[in-house]
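fyi for ur records
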Amino acid sequence: MKHTSLVVVFLYAISSGAAQQAFSPNPPQQTGSNASDFAHPRQLLQKGKYDEAIAELQHVIGFDRWCLPVADPDTLIPLGAAADHDYGPGVAHALALEFSGEDFAAKDVLARRPYPSRSLSAETGGDLPRSPRWDQVLRPVGIGDEAVVACRDAHGCWGWIEAYRDSEDRPFDEEELALLAAIGPSLGSALRRSTYPPHVGPYEPRAPAVIVLGSDLQVVSLTAGASAWMEIFPSAEVYAAFGMLPAMVYPAAMLARSREEAVRAHALERAVDGRWVMIEAAVLEGAADEQIAVTFRQATSGEAFDRLCRIYGLSRREREVVAAILEGLDTRGVTDRLFISRHTVQDHLKSVFRKLGIHSRRELRAAFHASPATT
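which gave:
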């Protein structure tokens, strides 16, 4: 059954710059006729040609609808997605069900497993109605099996590929899941290096704001400024059209209700004006109806610095050198602080410049927005 509508939500405009070489500690063995066809999608990903790569994957593996969520690598909460499917109005409910702890093939769970790829049919033992999100959201739009692969590289998980087959099509098999798993590291590195936009600013600091959600994750109340915060998220217009909050709110709210997972109930997001925004969810003590408070605030300089260092793949010593430069130290100051030679400082800076694709300390400060940094 061909789906009849198209939903495209792209949290960030992914650049066309080439991604770093992918890292895969134990890549699955590729067998069969599809293996030779699979090299081209990987090359497209490394060149930043995501739409073409997805089209190639659709041909090689065989699926119609898809979703490409971007991840917060620290908490494994999806921030938003590029997608071609027709359950847009059901995305909020699907995310809430997936992160309830009672569903199958949840993205955050797969991201923490040794092997990154799995299908919903395999997870449910072939009984798809066991999955609440399939039964309540995917099945009504004619989706059958779903394959999910965590896109991980040496620096973490940066997103997922979700591939959907129609209800009358066969489930994904192990060879197809292995092919998806093999492309995960390439896409992970590409997302890490090119998902986040350059600094746009300048922007004015703004006060934190809070929204209160009821047990059904509907808004009960909100403080002044909450709507303004949500308007600066990428895809804000799409969220508004679907009558939903920013995508990461729903997983964060569900995790906040879990005693074991509440520590992960937050996500760091980049707004359209370039600022970093921290979204934090917590259960309101003494409130009726399991109400959740979701706070939007400007990220601290340390939070932004840590994320950017991870995006750029900096080593511990490179982070220390960059932090010193951002504080205004010259080469001699860096050598005195870190007890290393001038030659070593220059070697670290050369490595940092190469990773960031820059050529000067001025560009380095611009890349980190010249913010005070903590390590």
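The chain has three domains: 34-194, 209-299, 302-367. thats all i got for now
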